[in-house]
Design a protein that fits this description.
Blueprint (H helix, E strand, L loop, with lengths): L7 E10 L11 E8 L5 E8 L26 H16 L10 E6 L7 H8 L3 E2 H6 L6 E3 L2 E3 L2 E6 L6 E6 L19 H6 L14 E5 L5 E2 L2 E6 L7 E4 L2 E2 L4 E7 L6 E3 L4 E4 L12 E10 L8 E8 L6 E5 L4 E3 L7 E8 L7 E8 L4 E4 L2 E4 L10 E10 L4 E11 L6 H17 L1
Parallel strand pairs: 3-4, 12-19, 21-27
Antiparallel strand pairs: 1-2, 2-3, 4-8, 5-8, 6-7, 9-10, 11-14, 13-17, 15-18, 16-17, 18-19, 20-22, 22-25, 23-26, 24-25, 26-27
Amino acid sequence: MIYRKDKVVQAGVAAVTTAVPFDYGNRALISQSFKLQQSAELLNFTVAHLRSKGSCPSDKSDVANSDSGDGQGCWNGVRLQAVQAMHNWLAGYPTGVETDNSVIVGDFNAYMQEDPIRAMNDSGYVQVSQQLYGNKVSSYLFNGESGTLDHVFAAGDIKNRVAEVTEWAINADEPVILDYNEEFKSDVAKANFYAPGPFRSSDHDPMLMSVYFAKPLVEDQLFLLDEQSVAGTVVGQIVTNSAVAIARYQLSGEQAALFSVNAAGQLVVAAGAELDFESRQVQRFELTVQSETGLVSDAATIEVQLNDLPELPLLTLEGLPTVISDQIRPGTLLATVKAQATGNNASIQTIQLIEGDKFLVLKNGQLTLKKKLNAKQQPELKFSIKATDSLGVSTIVTYVIEVKDGKGNSVLQWVISVIHAVLGWLFG
């Protein structure tokens, strides 16, 4: 197993099995997990070499492995058993890395329509060259006929990101006389037909597979924003899916300048932004994200729906004092209550006293004292008034008036006077 250290790094531990049926005929399975450096994806990579079609069993009762004449040759049963055992072995994640991304490569000694290949497809793997090009792929030449004994299978999300599968045609189509075998060659032939290049270094063509990296994902998102929001207001959290940290957020579009994304990945109202709530209720722009390794997501549409809050009625209390004496008589006018509707085509429907009606009366816009006050028992007069307009929008305002005794003292002043008197009596 040869790999590029500048592209991937090992993950987990290398795993090998020579358990039946990989103890004889089928070669040992080798599996290693890797992490793709640019996208941080994990991948389990396995090399297989299943038993060849020749050297048929001497036991004629071994029907499963004898040549049945269907074109699959001998040992089809052993190869099929190997596929099933390989699937079970890999399901236990022998490298210690649990990922659904799995690639199996090797010489299966089975052509595209044979039982072992069908079993691989049935177990969730995809023969990637067949997926891209159908059956028009060849890696081996035998008795003048070409076909594919060498396969690349992929499972998990990675099977949907195969960019290219190529048969590197350096071996199968080359004359046998050029290969590495030295039998039946004279010393002169060995010297004359040797070349240091890659051609006929094997009887099978190697297969090359290219895979697109998994780009960061960002989905279309909708946020709500109140009309009273100011610069720096957090609109919401941008949701992304990336194995590598996001390094950059890029907003684009006519309304993009109204917003920015902070270091925490939150969408915020940009400095100096003037949000137009009247003519544009939805601000729309596009967002792409870039990972630390340079991978850029597809564009997502971000919508910010401006929540145009209802216009609240205005309440004013003309003449309302901040301090009153507990000597004023019931029926005394304390304030004139006025309300003004601010919503479109709205009018004031009701003005109500909703707290403080024990001591106050509100009638025809006149707020009057209902009963006599006692500053010691009622040091403050707290009440709330509610105004509601024809749109059903209400304003509630709470007021507090300090109550003093007939000498103009508040309860706090009276308490202090008592303390002074007691201290004077104790200490002369």
